[in-house]
Amino acid sequence: MALSQAEIFANPGLYPVIKLQSASMLSIREEDARLSATFATQQRWLMSHVGLALYLRGLSAGTTNGLHITKFLEAVVAADIASRNTADSYIKEMIYYKYVELLPSPADRRMRPLGPARHVLDLVNGWVRAHLYSLDRLAGGNRLAAYEATPDALQLVQPIIADRLVAAHAVRNPERTFSLFTWLDNGGTIMDWLMASMEDAPMSAERVGVGPISTVEMARQLMLSRTHLARKLREAEDLGSLGWEGRRGHSVMWVSRGFREEYASAQAIKLSIVDQACEAVLGPAGA
Q1: Is the CB of residue 245 less than 8 Å from the CB of residue 209?
Q2: What is the pTM of this model?
Q3: What fold, for 176-262?
Q4: In the chain, which segments carry CATH 1.10.10.10?
Q5: Which of helix, strand or coil describes residue 101?
Q6: Half-sphere exposure of 130 (CA within 13 A, CB side)
């Protein structure tokens, strides 16, 4: 049986696994920092999953030669992810940077079908693989091997993941500090960076150091406004979620137990959704 969010969250091996997973997410980001940045807010991340699911479902059904903008806009609005104008601006940005490509439409050129660029599919495939690797480390099984041995696995699995992410209340309404960062450009990357940098410590530790972090350097690497980043970090500090052992922004930063638990809970929800989707397509993990 696929693992539930509660089972994953209660697993004593969760923190080392999500630390490694966070490092994997940063490695994926390094392959294309600009592309990763387009997915690094919750709204854009969900829109990306919705659009890719529409494209892959059409591919599986053999009824379409691409994704049509009108269908994408309708799906995003129906799921209450973003306004039509926001979704339209997003898809146009994806076209501009060639992450989404215009496909030939011999039947009707006015329809302008779209498809994801190959390297976008590779990035999403890497995201799924990283989560399956985490699940195998947590609970054993052969999820990743089964996925890699299945032709068109991404095409079959991703639409189910997208549906469940959009439908999950806990995904759409994250806890306080996690929510603070999910609406910041590259906020997801900031959290991955913090968690990947955590010192080894018991799960019960009230504070865990993440090393000396310069906010100036962080803003530069993540292509963020230094002022905007500093404001968000101050808000998180006011919540008691992080802080510095010495001078703010120029000494060892720490993250609180509460913030780590929020992050772990969010990862547990995602991992459970990925596990459910892969079981639906590939069968039980131990099969």
Answers
A1: yes
A2: 0.92
A3: Arc Repressor Mutant, subunit A (1.10.10)
A4: 176-262
A5: strand
A6: 21
Looking at residue 183, its amino acid is: W
What is the CA angle 79-85-87, rounded to 5? 50
pLDDT along the chain (287 residues), means of 10: 94 94 88 74 92 91 77 96 95 92 68 86 94 96 95 96 95 83 80 90 90 80 80 89 85 92 94 96 80
Query: How many C-alpha atoms does 282 have within 13 Å on its Cβ side?
Result: 30
Three-state secondary structure of 185-248: CCHHHHHHHHHHCCCCCCCCCCEEEEEECCHHHHHHHCCCCHHHHHHHHHHHHHCCCEEECCCC
- Helix, strand and coil percent figures for the chain, each rounded to 5: 65, 5, 30
Q: Which residues contact 279 (CB under 8 A, 6 or more apart)?
A: 1, 2, 285
Match 């609406």 to its residue by tokens. Answer: 183
Smallest CA-to-CA distance from 228 within 198, 197, 187, 260 is with 187
Show the tokens assigned to 146: 């089964």
Token pair for residue 73?
A: 């806009």
For helices 84-96 and 42-61, angle between their N-to-C axes, nearest 10 degrees: 70
Q: What are phi and psi of 95, to 5 degrees?
A: -70, -45
Please count the residues of the chain.
Answer: 287
